[in-house]
Amino acid sequence: MMQVFGIIFGSFxxxxxxxxxxxPHQVLSSGVNGISMILGMLTPLNTGVANFLLNLxxxxxxxxxxGKKFIWKSVFSVMIISFGLYFIPVHAVxxxxxxxxxxxxxxxxxxxxxxxxxxxxTGGFDIIGMLVSRSKDFPLGLIMSSMxxxxxxxxxFLFDWDKALNTMVSIYATGKVVDALYTHHIxxxxxxxxxxxxxxxxxxxxxxxxxxxxxxxxxxYSNDKRNILFIVISRYELQDVKxxxxxxxxxxxxxxxxxxxxxxxxxxxSPQ
Length: 272
What we know:
Helices cover 61% and strands 11% of the residues. It has helices at 2-22, 31-42, 47-66, 68-87, 97-117, 125-135, 140-147, 149-158, 161-181, 197-207, 238-248, and strands spanning 187-194, 213-218, 225-234, 253-259. Helix 3 (47-66) packs parallel to helix 6 (125-135).
């Protein structure tokens, strides 16, 4: 329920950023959303309608590669943003284009980051960025900013280069805020000591997309046999993993450390 509320809240923040700060000054957002803004500015097609139509093929690709749960949450977010862009009037809150670019970009990053933390996306380049981020350990905001160079160039040619530079500022602010909120690229190593090693192994492998290693251990004080499980996860998975551990053995000893680098097999395809 909290994730649904987070997706609604994050998507609404994105709509506010677009219609009150970016679009009134012809400043574009990132990726597909930026392209939908261009269509809304230059054609009779509403920005919300364009946003939904452009996101459809990417959502279908994401459904096949990122799993049902992720994509249904993304569809939910895209629909909220599309309806919001359609019904909320475009109105400039601030007259200064640079300040609007910075604040609008930061607000967009806040909204996108909240949706990503709720295991969804706002569609568009977010889905492409998620695919790249899952196969390579790159910050998602950096990936999104890199892919958005085309939006900046289009903005320069269609409008003027002052607006293109404002778009670049907006996209940069969005990427920095996304990276501050969405920390998928940060890895953690968990050492779990429990006397329910087999139950813990089965439960973690059933609910996670990660492998793990089990070793035998002996309690230094009790001299009882224990199992030691090692697993490397993404930072955003930590809360779920802690819940899974507590479901099997609430008294398990867990040591959590940040991992500098991972080599070898870490990534697995998400189950459908």
